[in-house]
Design goal:
Blueprint lengths: L1 H21 L39 E7 L2 E8 L2 E6 L2 E9 L3 E7 L8 E7 L3 E6 L4 E6 L30
Length: 171
């Protein structure tokens, strides 16, 4: 398994994690139906578009991949939910209509350079995001069901993954 991780398993794991996260909602939003945020989420096909970037939420749907500063960045958007894996950050959140379509994320591990993102451009093949932390990502849309082939190789000095304990047997 170690050789698999060193040859691309991390990319697969990052993509799988980002896709899994898109199906998860935030516990903070559970049961809330009022307040300033209520109904502000832009969902695909709801007609809430952006005048500034010319992008609506439906045009963002899919998985976007690229390199920023030599590091892999993956953004997956499904039904108004966003998952991002970049460097050592894992973030999730929503597509929001704030006068323009924005990506509003919460990240683990104290990462804060990709919490509010504006769409600079999106032509359906290339997406440019500007983040409030000063980071700018230029991403390419991944073909559905296919992993991108133009990603760089992983470093050879990655640590080994620990062995998983045996699952208890059902009696």
């Amino acid at each position: 398994m170690t050789s698999f991780v060193r040859t691309g398993g991390v990319v697969v794991a990052a993509l799988a994690a980002s896709l899994a996260l898109t199906a998860c909602g935030s516990d903070d939003d559970a049961g809330k139906g009022s307040g300033s945020d209520a109904g502000s989420s832009a969902t695909p096909g709801d007609g809430q578009g952006s005048d500034g970037a010319g992008t609506d939420a439906a045009a963002l749907e899919g998985t976007w991949v690229g390199l920023t500063g030599g590091k892999n960045v993956t953004v997956s958007i499904t039904a108004g939910k966003v998952a991002l894996v970049a460097d050592q950050a894992v973030c999730q959140g929503d597509v929001k209509d704030m006068g323009e379509v924005m990506l509003a994320l919460k990240c683990t591990g104290g990462a804060n350079d990709r919490t509010m993102g504006a769409i600079e451009s999106n032509d359906g093949k290339k997406l440019v995001l500007s983040w409030d932390g000063g980071v700018k990502d230029t991403l390419t849309k991944a073909a559905p069901g296919k992993l991108p082939t133009d990603l760089p190789s992983l470093p050879s000095d990655l640590p080994s993954l620990p062995e998983l304990p045996e699952a208890p047997s059902a009696s």
